[in-house]
Structures are given as C-alpha cells and as structure tokens.
Amino acid sequence: MSNALPKIAWIGLGIMGSPMSENLIKAGYEVTGYTLEREKLDRLTAAGGTAAASIAEAVRDADVIITMVPASPQVEAIAYGPDGILENARSGALLIDMSSITPQTSVDLAAAARDKGIRVLDAPVSGGEAGAIEAVLSIMVGGEQADFDQAKPIFEALGKTIVLCGPHGSGQTVKAANQLIVAVNIQACAEAVVFLEKSGVDLKAALDVLNGGLAGSTVLTRKKDNFLNRDFKPGFRIDLHHKDMGIVTDAARNVGAALPVGAVVAQLVASLRAQGDGGLDHSALLRSVERLSGAQV
After folding, report:
1. 69 CB contacts (<8 Å, ≥6 apart)?
2. Is 235 exposed, middle or buried (0-12, 13-18, 19+ CB in 10 A)?
3. Is 175 a residue of the active site?
4. A single GO molecular function, which one (predicted)?
5. SS3 (DSSP) at 83
C-alpha cells in the first residue's frame, strides 16, 4: 500500500515535529527525517521512519518535503544555500512549511522555490503538543488550490480542521492572528486565576463553571490544569510565543491594523521572558500576573 503514497522527507523533529511525523508513519507513509538532535532521529527510527545524515540526503528522493522549525531564520537556513532544500530536492516536489514564520518569509520562499520547479505551501498549525500527538491540529494553509488538494490526505493524517486561507503567506497571517487570540486569552485567564485565588474561592470549582459558560474556551480547557497545578512544562514555550507576538505586531503595523490589547500582552510576554521564564509553557503568563500582584514566584 505504501508504494502508492508519496515519499515524505521531514525536517525538524521537535515538540511538534516528532509526534506529527509519527502520525504520518502510522498512516502508512514512508518518512525520512533530519533534525539536529541525535535522540530525535533515534525516536523517528524507533517509530518506523528512516534517519538521514543531512538535509540533502533526506530530501533527495522525496515527493513531499515537510519542515517544522522554530522561526524564519531556521526556515531560511534549511531552505537556501548549497546544502539546503531548494538545491537538493527534485523538480516537481512539494514543499510544505508548517513552521510559524513571518508571512513575507513564506512569500519569498515560494518565489525562490518556483525557480527550481518546487511548489510550496505555508501550513502553520494550532493545537500545541497535545493537538500534534492526537492528530487534531488546526492547519491554516497558504498557496495554490491544486497543491492544497494534493496535500490534503497528508494534512488529514495530522489534523482535523484544514483550511486553504488564500495565496502564499495567508496561512502565516491566520496563524499570527491565532497567536494573538491565544496570548490575550491566556492573559485574561491568568488574571482571573489570581483574582479568584486572592478572593479565597475554590479555584477548580470556579474554572469548571467558567469554562461551561461564555468565558469558556479551548485555551481554558487545555490550560486549566497548568493553572491549578502551577505546572508549566512546555507544550508551547514563552520564547516561541514572544517570537509570534513580534510577527503579529509587525504584520499588523504593515497593513495598518491597530492591536491595542495585543501590544500590551506582547509586552507582558516579553517581560516574562526577560524574567527568565522563556523556557516555560505560555500558561506561565500566570507567573507574571502573580508578580504584579505581589506574590513571590
């Protein structure tokens, strides 16, 4: 059966990339991976994938190349140059970048790839580590309809809500909006948590009833236990959300959209990072509110 499916190269096996690539293997795809950490390559081979020693080796025979790295500089580093994807992938291959980067980086990548006969989709995701593991990610895509149609079965092995949002860069624009909404939502929840606790209310009971009403959200459902247990093991690191708030504030400025609350939350994320909490989950915005409310954290 797997002979009929496209051969996949996967570059970047981090918190998101590892479980996502494993879901493709489970769906019957042949996956060859490359990443910087040896133990992540071992994890891929243990799951039934093939480890490559370089990007060039990983992409050489691939029909579809998927990248999942932290930010624009990393996408540029793996895509361009003599050892990069564009120089080593075959003409006709489809490059799907699932990283969260600036819309402009995606537009530029698509243009550079076109010269090599390589088609590109930007396809960032939302849903975090849990969504990646459970294959219920929301996938927002920018690019051509025909390429999206070809990639659809692959996306269906990774996520649940899969939408073509417009031309190249559109996926990244929607992802930036997603990160704006998530950060503001977490901040509001964090403020409520500190207010409730200082008022002496049973926090678990309060969050349960709030989550059943209009104040309820996917954010609160996913992060409730982080707040209750002060467990900030990273599903999505503050460092990365800081990068994303930079993307959305910059992109909004370029198009003339005001983000008054987003700008404040971007500063709160930046300050949390400056206090040494950049490696924690973004639900750790709670720590920032606690500090502002006089708690020693």
Report:
1. 11, 12, 14, 75, 78, 99
2. buried
3. yes
4. NAD binding
5. coil
Which helix or strand (DSSP H or E) is residue 94 part of?
A: strand 94-97
What is the amino acid identity at position 172? Q
Extract long-range pairs of 133-138: CB within 8 Å, 24+ residues apart. 133/19, 135/23, 135/159, 135/160, 136/160, 137/20, 137/161, 138/162, 138/178
Q: pLDDT tens digits for 46-95?
A: 999 999 999 999 999 999 999 999 999 999 999 999 999 999 999 999 99
| pTM exceeding 0.90 | yes
User: Which candidate in 40, 175, 223, 224 is catalytic?
Assistant: 175
Residue listed under structure tokens 């950060």? 183
What single DSSP character describes residue 2? Answer: G
